[in-house]
Q: What sequence folds into this?
């Protein structure tokens, strides 16, 4: 996302707001094994940081209860580091005794 798009997102209306963060854009909802829960990938602004910088946030969301649960947020620098690791990641390394994948 380039800087012009980020400014457009900040100028748009928020989608959700609570005492901790403001959701400006939901990028995707990833289905989970539960029909009630999804993982939301979204752009958020954390209120306690007192900045207009957006972070990529991946957080569980209950569609049934309309509430957020645990998740993780990544700043632009952290996201760049994460993507570097993911480029070299081999999904086959995840195989274990439970063989979930």
A:
């Amino acid at each position: 996302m380039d800087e012009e798009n980020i400014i457009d997102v900040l100028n748009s209306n928020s989608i959700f707001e609570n005492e901790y963060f403001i959701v400006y854009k939901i990028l995707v909802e990833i289905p989970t094994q539960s029909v009630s829960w999804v993982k939301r990938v979204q752009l958020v602004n954390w209120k306690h940081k007192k900045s207009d910088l957006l972070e990529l946030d991946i957080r569980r969301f209950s569609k049934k209860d309309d509430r957020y649960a645990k998740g993780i947020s990544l700043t632009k620098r952290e996201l760049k580091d994460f993507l570097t690791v993911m480029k070299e990641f081999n999904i086959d390394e995840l195989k274990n005794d439970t063989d979930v994948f």
The chain has one domain: 3-75. Residues 35 and 63 are 8 Å apart (CA to CA).
